[in-house]
Structure formats: structure tokens, C-alpha cells
Amino acid sequence: MEFMRKANILVSVLVDVALGVLLMFWLYRDENISTLAHTLVPAADHVALQLEELLQWLMGAPAGLKMNRALDQVLGRFFLYHIHLWISYIHLMSPFVEAVLWYGGLSACLGLTFALSLLSDMVALFTFHIYCFYVYGARLYCLKISGLSSLWRLFRGKKRNVLRQRVDSCSYDLDQLFIGTLLFTILLFLLPTTALYYLVFTLLRMVVVLFQGVLHLTVDFINSFPLFSVGLRVCRSYRLAEGVRFRVLCDEPGSALHLLMEMNPLKFSSVLQTYRTPTYSCSPKDSWTTLVHKLFIGELVYPWRHKTTKTD
Hints:
This protein is mainly alpha-helical. The chain has a domain at 31-225 and 276-297. Helices cover 68% and strands 8% of the residues. It is built from 9 helices and 4 strands. The strands form 2 sheets. Strands 1-2 form a two-stranded antiparallel ribbon. A two-stranded antiparallel ribbon has the order 3-4. A hairpin with a 7-residue loop joins β3 and β4. α1 (2-27) crosses α4 (112-126) and α4 packs antiparallel against α6 (174-224). The protein is flat, with a radius of gyration of 30 Å. Residues 308-312 have low confidence and may be disordered.
């Protein structure tokens, strides 16, 4: 097992570096880096303009929905201001994009996985404005959901006990109930406008996360795939056997029984399961139910950030 583990790691590193060198040769051939640089900046401008048109649509009457006019205008202008800042930032950084791609392409000699990880970081950098929009919308939506849940407990004569982490009974006077009713009504009628902005920017964020997830899964697949073991199973299957089997050659009455012993090769699924190189899994630890619950209450979702246990 130790020999197979080292052989799988060595072959994976060699294949990774070979694919990275091929990628580097492709990037520096026929001025492909210049072509990518001249394509990337207009693409970023196009995305920013599409977001601006989307915000203009949200500031009107999206899908015929009746929104709160004042809050809609405030949120729309707030996000439009950030888009204008982002366009200025793109134009400021456009002269350096080709140099960044040129030096970043040299990292491909360290392996295809290194280049894919760098691409994931570049995607996160170029979509930072979408991440900011998602954070702003999620925080505002979560604040309103928390306020509505607290005021709903007020109507039922209960309150949240932070120290004991439970809901206790509590008596409120008439003034507190009146103020709570006013706040509950305001938050409830402002919630659809905030929820629409949160929904749109969450969908945009999920698209970026999905693309980064494909890159992370590709890196994890290249690092963990037991290529040496699979090649050994294909070329010399007797080297990976899970047992033996006997086949009857001669079973005539009055003669000796002749048996042929054959190696029973390991199944491909067993090879992958047994000799797969353990890596840091990039898959989220939360279940789909937990993920949907976090999205519903407005909690920020970080798919590849795993919570660590803190000790005193």
C-alpha cells in the first residue's frame, strides 16, 4: 500500500506537470496571451454593463411586481455606484492585465492544478463586485428576517434568551406592543423589495460559485486519481488481485481431477476506492437542507470554508 501510494503520487505529479507544460506552450504560442488579455477586459466591461441594465430593470417594475419606490431607488443607486467604481477599476487595471497573464502563465510549469487554482483566484478577483452585491443583499435581507422573527415572538409573548439559548415567556406592555406592530408592518412591507435584490444577486453568486466548484473538483480529481494503479490494472491485472479462482479442466470418471488456478483481478471500482490518494476535499460539508436553510434566512454561504473547532 505504501509503495502504491508513493507511485500514484509520483505519477500524478508527473502528469500534472506535463499537462501544465502543454498549457504553457499553448499560451505562449501565436500570441494567445495577448488575445486573452484583449478579450478579458471587454468581457468584464460587458458583464458590468449587463449588471447595470439588470439594476435599471429592478429599479422599475420587474415582472410587473409592485416594489417600494423609495427603497428600490436607494438600493438601485447604491449598487449602480459600485458598478461605476468597478468599471473605473477595470479601466485602471487594463494596461496591466496582459502582464499579469504573462507572468501567471509561467506558473503552469508547476502543474495544471496550480494554473487552475490561479484561474479560480482570478475569477474571484474579477467577480469581486458580484460578491460585494451578494454580501450587501444578504446582510440586509438577514437583518429584516431577524427583525421579523423577533417581532413575531413579541406578539406571542416570548423573547429570545441569549444566555441560555432558548425562547422564554415574557410580558410586554401596551406601548411595546404598539411599537412592535409598527416595526413589524414596516419590515414586512419592505421585505419583498429587499428579497428581490437578494434573490437576483444570490443567483449571480451561485453561478460564480458553480464555476469555481468545477475548477476545484478538477484539481481534486487530478490530485487524487490513482493513475498508476489503474494503468497497472489494465496492463498487468495479476499484480492487483483480490483472490484466486479454480476452473475445472478434466472431470472424467476414473481419472484425476485437474484444476486450473487463475488470479481474480481487482475490480476497477475497488481499485479507485482502495488506491485513491487522500486529498483535502473541496466539497461542502453542509447538506442540501442546511444550504437551503442558510439561503432562506440570508446567512452567507462559503461552500469551501469548513468550520474549525475552537478550544479554550
